[in-house]
Amino acid sequence: MSTSDGYRGESGGRGKKKRIHLAAHFPGVNSTTVWADPRSGSQIDFSSFEHLARTAERGLFDFFFLAEGLRLREHGGRIHDLDVVGRPESITVLNALAAVTERIGLAGTVNATFNEPYELARRFASLDHLSGGRAAWNVVTSSDAFTGENFRRGGYLDRADRYARAAEFLDTTRELWDSWSPDGAQRPFSHTGRQFAIEGAFTVPRSPQGHPVVIQAGDSAEGREFAASAADVVFSRHSSPEAGRAFHADVKRRLDRYGRQPGDLKIMPAVTYVLGDTDAEAQEKAAEIRRQQVSPQNAILALEQVWGRDLSAYDPDGPLPGIDPDPDSGRVQGRVRVADPFAVAAKWRALSQAKGLSIRQTVIETTGRQSFVGTPRTVAAALEEHVATDAADGFVLVPHLTPGGLDDFVDHVVPLLQERGVFRTGYSGTTLRSHLGLPAPVWKGGTP
């Protein structure tokens, strides 16, 4: 395999630099996206998806990544403002993007709790065929009864069981994909387990990648073990060097017990960036973006997510509440719950008092920070350092603008990474597995 694409090893061999993997996350209904910027466009129109995907492909990225939202989130009994713009179904969008892109991988988030293996296996195998081997599935789970109300089995899954179901779901899906052999022979499938009991004949022949690439994002002990046993890519949240190296080492250590090599799993944290003509200018731009991301209204919403109370009467430019959180209020629905709101509230109060920060300033300080800030050369050097020191194998870039937020990175940072010899100058393969340097899946179908 050409070194202009991926490779299985961790260092690229003696005398070779470790190559960087890059992916693009579509900026949608999250606190990163700045909707007030006049350059901000629709996150529903297909033209927005097309622009970002084509920009990422022009930048020779490994894949384009879509999130999923199965229910509009609520805050105080009302639809969360960011969700009012809607949340399209990811595989539908990726199928359309397959027709207007040629090489970039197409990754979609699909929930293993509220789907069934047979249907999902068909959808991803079809996408893999339509795209010529570029499909990827980001496996997520849910124990949220609020989301489950949209489904027939709403709320039935205990939180402790979600990884057990996801693991069997993925195993069953791979059994379906393996019911067609590499030479085109088909055989009936039969699976009986705690979560699923299905049998029949799978309708889609073996796809170009054999198995679409599997992405996983859990950070718990169960999530890390699941990633080591079954995932090809980990979408991690550890973007600082120290946290990244600790996570990278922990997950890679777990691979051996499953007969896997370090290069068989790529760890790619979600990161943001801000560029400027000078480092000082970039820092000023980053501070302004943080202020845009955390408007006065968003500051109160972020505060209510921790406190679980109606805090609309508080002044965003005033001090933090003196009252304790109410973690059982149910004021925020469909958003990630704060694990220990009392500890978070205490930390925020201490920070606010130490630095004399208002509510809005405290939220900006604790939630609105960019990962890489500086000139293109500064950012390129920092990205290389992260990968060279095993803080990551690559990055999933989350721009703050839809859909043009990736343009300046592709135009100004990618050429510098290429000059440094740490990023491809062209796609040498046609599948996402080849871009990532992942081994072909071993066919486990037996004799048809």
UniProtKB/TrEMBL annotation:
Its EC number is 1.14.-.-. Belongs to the NtaA/SnaA/DszA monooxygenase family. GO terms for molecular function: monooxygenase activity. It comes from Streptomyces lateritius. It is an enzyme of class 1 (oxidoreductase). It comes from the Bacteria. Coiled coil: none annotated. NCBIfam families: FMN_nitrolo. SUPFAM superfamilies: Bacterial luciferase-like. This is NtaA/DmoA family FMN-dependent monooxygenase. Gene3D superfamilies: Luciferase-like domain. Residues 36-387 form the Luciferase-like domain. Keywords: Flavoprotein, FMN, Monooxygenase, Oxidoreductase. Signal peptide: none annotated.
